[in-house]
Amino acid sequence: MPLAAAITDVQQLKNHPAVARLLAWKSDAIEGVRFDREEMTIHVDRSNIRDACALLKEDPACPFNFLSDLTCVDWYPAEPRFEVVYHLLSIPNKERVRLKVKLNSSSPAVESVTSVWAGANFFEREVFDLFGVRFTGHPYLRRILMPEDWEGHPLRKDYPVEGYR
Amino acid sequence: MILNMGPQHPSTHGVLRVILEIDGENVVRIMPDIGYLHTGIEKTCEAKFYQQVVPLTDRIDYLCPLTNNLCYCLAVEKLLGLEIPPKAQWLRVLLNELTRINSHLVWLGTHALDIGAMTVFLYCFREREEILKMFEMVSGQRMMTSYFRVGGIALEPPLGFFDRVRDFAGYFPEKVDEYENLLTGNPIWLMRTKGVATMTAEDALALGATGPTLRGSGVDIDLRRDMPYSSYEKFQFKVPLSQDGDVFARYMCRVQELRESIGIVRQALDGMPEGPIKADAPGVVLPDREKMKTQMEALIYHFKIITEGFAVPAGEVYQAVESPRGEMGYYVVSDGTAKPYRVHMRSACFANLQTLAKMCEGRLIADVVAAIGSIDIVLGEIDR
Q: pLDDT at position B280, please?
């Protein structure tokens, strides 16, 4: 079964509940969108992400009240290097959406969403531990999987698979 | 006083370290410390071909290995745009539900053992032995089965497999009655679990809990019914729900899930379609052994797939399934080559563990043991 082509035009996708809500809030909130393999991805600027998440959570038409996943992808050596990915799920409407924030390698920091969903706590700690992305406003940003005295961020692309020790 | 519980502890179900700040017998603060089982599986996946990642996925949530296989295979099949034949889908559902029963039996046995009921542990493992023998029949392995492949199932199930599953489905509901006889009306069990470690629905949703941990608090979401995958929409089953939010509510949800799962297994046996077990995609799916020995193209495809892997078109996919613990998701990012660029496992227990603080602060130490058991954690999934 051949794959349908990806749609990246905001005008064609503006009826999706998340896209419509973000466009209604600020016309420049959405930096890019992609509808590929039946999944909606919205690129958001890092200064807007916490407000965008809070808005989508409280949206009366389609409340994205559940944070499924928060992770990061390292696109070394391309810039912007890090891409923090948020997977939201609307339990009443059974809809999913993916939000992405691009960060440069010089200052990989973004505002924490623990004030929106308390469950982002462990996920943000894991991204900090394995990628080195800082989350401002996080109540306890420490390493979670690696030992406390570990140096380096293992899931970065310039960290070898075999490790250093 | 600050007390350390674990990482070596019989009741933490793995290498979980819980730092307790206690005042007498009451817990003032609780903080889980994880990472003792971290083996860098996500990093290793980036160095393997797509088909080589399947055995790695077994070891993530080692109590439901087939569910991990299923989630990963569904994600890669979504990336490729492959259509899976109905027989493979129904077999996947059948084995997935047997895995759910398997996992819940371990949960029930160890949870009851922590609280003091040792007989239930031995009874549960007696049934689990039969399921492990069925897995061995079909894949050669008791636990780390790796039976699903990108594109379908690895091998045809052997003759006698379906009869064996049917026999098991015949006597299993009485065994669930046996476990309930020992626990559900038992005054000691009720005192240890009713009203213990309660959590409201808002807290559970905010903390990211899924599965029976969330359904025990009254939020009705089950990915098999609400966002079906692999032909789950063709099966009839109820999703147990409870409004109480305590350990007993989560226990009842899971025990009823045992009954529903065996019902799904029976439906899968009765309606099993005929047909191929692998998708029609010669560049992705290994050819039949006999064809590989007699036809030139099949031999070349076999060689290419094993030595070079198959390239997956660039893109990303988040595929979630309902594992026995909750929402297990795989986020697979592909850059067009034969090795995945990033594989992230959203493990259900990682998020569920965050609810421990909410459940246990202000309660007794003994309730911490009951709460850890009721969340049903598997450290392999938490640490990866």
A: 87
Residue B127 confidence (pLDDT) above 80: yes
Our CA-based measurement puts residue A144 at a distance from the nearest CA of chain B, in whole angstroms, of 6
Cross-chain CB nearest to B318 (options A87, A146, A147) = A87
pLDDT in the model for residue A1:
53
* Domain spans, chain A: 10-136
Question: Looking at A27-130, which runs of residues are DSSP E strands?
Answer: 30-36, 39-44, 66-74, 82-90, 95-103, 109-111
Per the CB < 8 Å rule, is B351 touching A154?
no
- pLDDT for B24-78, tens place per residue? 888 898 989 998 889 889 999 999 999 999 999 989 989 999 999 999 999 999 9
Domain that holds residue B116: 2-383
Q: Is there a contact between B208 and A87 if contact means CB atoms under 8 Å apart?
A: no
Token pair listed for B361: 């602060």
* CATH class held by domain A10-136: alpha beta
Distance, in angstroms, between A114 CA and closest chain B CA?
Answer: 9
Q: Nearest Cα to B263, choosing from B143, B97, B115?
A: B97
Report how many domains make up chain B.
Answer: 1
- What is the ipTM score, two decimals? 0.92
- The closest of B52, B29, B32 to B352, measured between CA atoms, is B32
Task: Return the amino acid letter for B309.
Answer: G
**Confidence bin at B172 (pLDDT 50/70/90):** very high
For residue B81, the domain's CATH number is 1.10.645.10
Q: How far apart are CA B92 and CA B326, in angstroms?
A: 18
